[in-house]
Amino acid sequence: MLRSSLQLLRSSLPFPNTSSVNSVVANPLALHSRCMHLTSNLFAERRDLRTYRMTMPSKDQTLHGEKSIEIDSVKDKKGMFPDKDTPNRVFDGVLFKELPIFNIKACKNNTIITMSDFKGNVHLTKSCGTCGFKTAKKATNIAAQTTAISISTKALGELGVRTARVRVQGIGPGRMAAIKGLQMGGINIVCITDNTHVSWAPPRARKQRRV
């Protein structure tokens, strides 16, 4: 019976040479075997590119002083600035109270910079959106620094502004980057004023959710 089954296998399988037929006859169970390849678990995270990128540590692109800043306490009150004589001091041939002002509004999703005179008349306006940044890229510190360089270069070239004051409002990601960009654009910053609104009596929070 075994001989008849082997003859049936030899006649049904079209092998080109006799060596392969002899190997099959020698091991008839080889027809029912299958090679199994197992991938190592170490490379399982590479299959999902999104999961692999989430596990990688993000590159820190914050500037110095963006998250925290060290402030030296003034031991001598004579060195405090400003004082009562500050508005009448002269910086680059212009009184302090008549210097142009760069207003930086650092929002969560955008950074808007305007340049006005001491009377409040706005002469230049720039934002991350007008400088070519779209969607989530407007909220980066690189976009804020590029916007500050653009408006400072324009103010220096068209209006001849070299010395100015800076007024910052908001706690967005482009807060410190915009100030650094104004310096890189050639503006001599005399003073920096933080005009961020602080609510000492905020509205009552919502009640706790019941589950």
Overall description:
By secondary structure, the chain is of the alpha/beta class. It has 2 domains: 1-52, no CATH class; 84-194, Nucleotidyltransferase, domain 5 (2-Layer Sandwich). It has 5 helices and 7 strands; from the N terminus they run αααβββββαβαβ. A hairpin with a 4-residue loop joins strand 3 (101-106) and strand 4. It comes from Trichogramma kaykai.
Q: In DSSP terms, counting alpha (H) and pi (I) runs of 4 or more, how many helices?
A: 5
Portion in strands: 15-25%
Architecture per CATH nomenclature, i.e. the level-2 architecture of the largest domain: 2-Layer Sandwich
- The best one-word shape is globular
If you consult CATH, what is the topology of the largest domain?
Nucleotidyltransferase, domain 5
Query: Helical content, roughly?
Result: 25-40%
- The run of helices and strands is HHHEEEEEHEHE
What is the total tally of β strands?
Answer: 7
InterPro entries: Ribosomal_uS11 (IPR001971), Ribosomal_uS11_sf (IPR036967)
Keywords: Ribonucleoprotein, Ribosomal protein
Family: Belongs to the universal ribosomal protein uS11 family.
Organism: Trichogramma kaykai
What is shown here, in short?
This is Ribosomal protein S11. The chain has 211 residues and is of the alpha/beta class.
Which structural traits does this protein have?
211 residues, alpha/beta, Nucleotidyltransferase, domain 5, 5-stranded mixed sheet, two-stranded antiparallel ribbon, 7 strands, ribonucleoprotein, Ribosomal_uS11_sf
